[in-house]
Amino acid sequence: TRIDKGGHKHFMAKEIAEQPHVIGEALNHYLTADGTGINVPESLPDFRGVERLVLVACGTAYYACVTAKYWFERIARLPVEVDIASEFRYREPPVTDGTVALFVSQSGETADTLAALRYCADKAAHVVSVVNVPESSIARESGTALPILAGVEVGVASTKAFTCQLTVLYLLALKAAQQRGHLDADALTDRLSALRSLPGILNHALAQDRSAKKVARKLAEADDILFLGRGLMYPLAMEGALKLKEISYIHAEAYASGELKHGPIALIDKRMPVVVMAPKDKLFDKTVSNMQEVMARGGKVTLITDEAGLDEAGDGVTNTLVMPTVPDDLAPILYAIPAQQLAYHTAIAKGTDVDQPRNLAKSVTVE
Ligand code: G6P
């Protein structure tokens, strides 16, 4: 089938807009017909017998893995190690038959991820992959391949594949929690029904595109941008910074908010835009106090939060993007949208090639 831009200026814009639909497809695939259970292939190991989960990937898929670590540890009480494939493969990490090694890849062809997979398969680990291309090498060489059903992704900067990866990883964390006795039937049903309402909520976030565009016009003037987040918002801050540098060529980096005073605070002045991702969750007050340290030094803050967060901490902030309220664990999937919109519109303002950024490839099949 021929893939076109479907009326959008860029594939990236189209793929950002498709997210509610493709996440809905993934949910239809993995949820049982009555919506109270999660379907997984027979070949997937039972997480009761698993000692350790190792998550390995590159680029955006790696940030999906870092997010998933928080979910697997907190909800399923499963020890998780997460690493970049190019580091993992040469570290000679101990891997045993009590290990599930999970590889996340949009293309399923990334050379380092495939090599890391082969290393684990050799050591008798259970090899599971979360992939977008079901006939890819990584899918074929896995004991269990879980499709993310994002459809073809053309833009080099990954968008819909990221949120579909998150959706599948979250479902897997719930499955593991259920098997390990940390999630009863009622709690699971609640979480799944919240997940079912996510596509509609994502549409509300997409509708904020104009606000993101306004903020992006200002970000486009910066030389460096700092992204801050805590807990589940930390990997998302990393993904936001990655998206921005990939397509706008502005230097961006992400820090866990709590690390601010251990270095990056030295960079803060009035020329330094700081994007703070902070839904009103348990860590909100901590993030806000870090944000205030930034503002006290003249840093220009863009706060991405929800209504309650805005009420509590909106004073003195330069820009705000207000998201719908969702359960804490679903926030990374929702907050990915403003991160993508900011990168997209900043790139447009700078006039760069959004779909084909310089020096980057969609899939890195050589080392
Ligand atoms: C390249 C792409 C990224 C992608 C990464 C991993 O760097 O430009 O968008 O996240 O590879 O690719 P994979 O196909 O393994 O997810």
TrEMBL record:
Residue stretches making up the SIS domain: 43-182, 215-357
Positions of the catalytic residues: 362 (for fru-6p isomerization activity)
A molecular-function term among this protein's GO annotations: carbohydrate derivative binding
Record's catalysed reaction(s): D-fructose 6-phosphate + L-glutamine = D-glucosamine 6-phosphate + L-glutamate
Record's keyword terms, sorted: Aminotransferase, Cytoplasm, Glutamine amidotransferase, Repeat, Transferase
Any one GO CC term of the record: cytosol
Enzyme Commission code(s) on record: 2.6.1.16
GO terms of biological process kind: carbohydrate metabolic process; fructose 6-phosphate metabolic process; protein N-linked glycosylation; UDP-N-acetylglucosamine metabolic process
Subunit note: Homodimer.
UniProt name for this protein: Glutamine--fructose-6-phosphate aminotransferase [isomerizing]
Gene field: glmS
Residues of the full protein shown: 241 to 607 of 607
